[in-house]
Write a structure and sequence with these properties.
Keywords: Membrane, Transmembrane, Transmembrane helix. By secondary structure, the protein is mainly alpha-helical. It is 60% helix and 7% strand.
Length: 166
């Protein structure tokens, strides 16, 4: 990390679009949670096992934890994204490759922020549906889908980082 160039990365239209979509989804997540809060029963699922079955229950106030965590992560990753020279990179950062590597890394962070909001929003949505008797869990598809949403972009951007270093 010492000696890495400190470069301010100018967001592209795509980067700005990702930020706007993420913020829009986060606000929508909060709205969905607040609108449905009064309609929830006093006890709701608070945890799901790997098969998507509810295995922990608590008071309905726990539904607020999901958008709170999503918001904290969104804000934290937004702030961190302003300092790409602090990131861990799979390749050596030099003055010659810093702009490309930082641009790639900040794009990855934007996509991961979006994915985090989507995942937390889906958990909240499905929890509300479960609490209202519309479904009986997240479903068997939820864990594999979540892992795919997280790891496919990570693998893509890490591979891209190696390619750009050649």
């Amino acid at each position: 990390m010492n000696g890495r160039p400190k470069i301010k990365i100018k967001p592209t239209k795509t980067d700005k679009t990702l930020e706007i979509i993420g913020l829009f989804l986060l606000v929508g997540f909060w709205c969905m949670t607040i609108i449905n809060y009064t309609k929830l029963p006093e006890v709701i699922p608070t945890h799901y096992n790997g098969m998507g079955e509810a295995d922990g229950f608590g008071g309905k106030v726990n539904i607020l934890i999901l958008p709170i965590i999503a918001t904290i992560l969104f804000i934290g990753l937004t702030k961190l994204n302003k300092y790409p020279h602090l990131f861990n990179f799979p390749t050596k950062i030099t003055p010659e490759n810093a702009l490309e590597q930082y641009t790639n890394a900040t794009r990855m962070m934007r996509i991961l922020k979006l994915v985090i909001v989507v995942i937390f929003g889906l958990i909240g949505f499905q929890t509300i549906r479960f609490a209202n008797g519309q479904i009986n869990g997240l479903g068997k598809w939820f864990l594999p889908m979540t892992m795919g949403l997280i790891f496919i972009p990570l693998i893509y951007f890490i591979a891209k980082s190696f390619k750009r270093n050649k």
